[in-house]
Amino acid sequence: MINSKTQLMGLIGHPVEHSISANMHNAIYKALNLNYAYLNFDVKTDDLKKAIDGAKTLNVLGYNVTIPHKINVMKYLDEIDFMAKMIGAVNTIHFKEYQNDKTKTLCTKAIGYNTDGIGAVEAITEEINLKNKKVVVLGAGGASRAIAFQIAISGINELVILNRTDEKAKILSNECENKLTQLNKSNQSNKSNQSNKSNQLHTQNNSKIKEKIDFNENMIFKYGNLLNIEEELKNADVLINTTSVGLYPNINDKPLAIADMMHSDLVVNDIVYNPIDTGLLKEAKIAGAKTIPGTKMLIYQGAVSFNIWTGHDAPIDVMEKAVYKSRSQLKH
Question: What pLDDT sits at residue 202?
Fold first, then answer.
């Protein structure tokens, strides 16, 4: 029951009526008997700063952020987690109370995170250990950016980014390589006087995202256009589609990869979750490959956001049931 002590979370974007995030998060609160509520807020670009300032005033605990605000919102935040800085986008905000040392009063600061990439990696590692694997990513937009950075620090051996235009793929690939190589060198330098000199990095800036980061110093970074898909998939372990190809209502669009290009040892993840069974995943099943629907990334990124806000682990099974119960909404 909502009362004066109910803690509020929500999604900000424009539009947001298509989102099932509220159904998913409210199912968590009900299952764990938490006095929280999650709402979708349609926030236009001109009102973005007001939405952040208003959340501080109203003691909102957290926001998820969707298009078109993931980049623009960063300038209104007080702190940004280091991975979100590297990715250049925020999808989760935690409004955290702290005591001002000068005034001795309670204040609120807005801290930005990016859980999109973590959500994708968590979904994929349900099916395959990423250590020393080759990953092919289709697309070089915002979603690709979050996933590319995160999967590149998950122990893989080779990352191939393919896009309709080579230039965008090149820019993202080079940025991943340069930023992560520099981060690795910096961490190695900081650890030079420690007994453990492995290349296991850790998140910085007191991040609530505490997992180890495994960057392979000998990792291969490649890029190209979509004409290279068939060749790159021959020895690939994982294929991730981050493009909107096959997204409702264009469900009959030809997938970027078809069954003849795939093999049975391949794991195929399509981040499109409307429809759940996309054309790409249907082709993967024909090839005998393992498939991961976009709902999995949605669930895991939401679980990480929930943990950032509350410190609790989210019940994945409850979230899955809520998402699949909302399938009728995914078709509109």
Answer: 39
